């Protein structure tokens, strides 16, 4: 798998800046958490795009949900499951629902760490991503 895409580091840094309140502007704590979740979701999608299109350029045109389903074949079941769960959580964290609490800062910090770990896992070339030894056929 390729190295992390160029904008990945900047997006993760933006999420960190939103959470640490170093970005100026009239943002509420809930707005900062949602903004950070949105930046992390875009970073995760960029990782998946880079990982898959390096192996199958035609996958650039399919939906993110389809790409995550394909990721199992290229990165292993464990990584694909972690990406899917995180992508769904980030998607929910980005949206405002008047009858639900938004993501907490602690949740978004944990998501930020997970995005970083998945970036490392997806950037490792031809390593068994699910922790299982590759079978010799």
Mean pLDDT: 83
Q: What proportion of the residues form beta strands (DSSP E)?
A: under 5%
Helix count equals: 5
Give the helix proportion (percent range). 55-70%
Return residue spans where pLDDT drops below 50 for at least 5 consecutive residues: 127-137
Extended strand count: 0
Return the structural class.
mainly alpha
**What is the terminal-to-terminal distance?**
21 Å
Biggest sheet statistics = none
The global form is: globular
* C-alpha Rg (nearest Å): 16 Å
Output the helix-strand order: HHHHH
Keywords:
single chain, about 140 residues, mainly alpha, 5 helices, about 0% strand, disordered C terminus
Itemize the secondary structure elements and their pairings:
Layout: H1 6-20, H2 29-55, H3 64-75, H4 77-94, H5 105-123
Helix pairs in contact: 1-2, 1-5, 2-3, 2-4, 2-5, 3-4, 4-5
Structure description:
By secondary structure, the protein is mostly helical. The chain contains 5 helices and no strands. The protein has helices at 6-20, 29-55, 64-75, 77-94, 105-123. Helix 1 runs antiparallel to helix 2, helix 1 runs antiparallel to helix 5 and helix 2 packs across helix 3 (64-75). It is globular and about 45 Å long. The two termini are 21 Å apart. The model is unreliable at 127-137 (pLDDT under 50).
């Amino acid at each position: 798998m390729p190295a992390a895409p160029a904008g990945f580091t900047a997006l993760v840094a933006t999420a960190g800046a939103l959470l640490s309140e170093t970005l100026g502007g009239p943002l509420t704590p809930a707005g900062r958490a949602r903004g950070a979740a949105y930046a992390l979701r875009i970073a995760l999608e960029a990782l998946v795009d880079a990982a898959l299109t390096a192996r199958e350029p035609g996958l650039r045109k399919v939906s993110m949900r389809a790409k995550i389903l394909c990721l199992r074949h290229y990165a292993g079941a464990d990584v694909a499951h972690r990406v899917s769960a995180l992508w769904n959580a980030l998607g929910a964290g980005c949206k405002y629902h008047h009858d639900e609490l938004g993501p907490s800062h602690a949740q978004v910090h944990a998501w930020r760490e997970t995005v970083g770990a998945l970036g490392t896992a997806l950037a490792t070339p031809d390593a068994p991503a699910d922790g299982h030894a590759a079978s010799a056929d």
